[in-house]
Request: fold
Amino acid sequence: MMQRTFKVTVDGKEYIVEVEEISDKAKTAEEKLQEQPSNQQHNQTQKKRVESAEELKKNKDKEKNEREKSLVKEKDSDKVNEITSPMTGVILDIFVSSGDKVKPGDKVILMEAMKMENTVLSDYEGTVKTVKVNKGDNIDAGDVIVILE
Reply:
């Protein structure tokens, strides 16, 4: 590569500077400035990014609302007559059987979870159609334990 010598003045003081060209494709500062997008182009790009981000947020909000609506529909459907386990554990005792009438707050089962006994209460009024568990069963949170009519 080629080495060139320049005289440079900084704050009134002259310096002799040797500069080595490291590429034939070296561009002047002016050429580099011309390649950069103008402020108007930069602003348009930024505006598009902001619009894209806003559109993405709108889509996420819309999806969230749709998911929430579907969850509400699911809760309002047939699942109202199912009593589910609030936690993982073992069934110790069953207080109801098929044909029994229950009201909200009635004891349904006794279970052990983390070495503590927990009573599961009915949230609904109805007649016991099916008891889906037996004493000694291991159940997971959300498992259906009793179906009401």
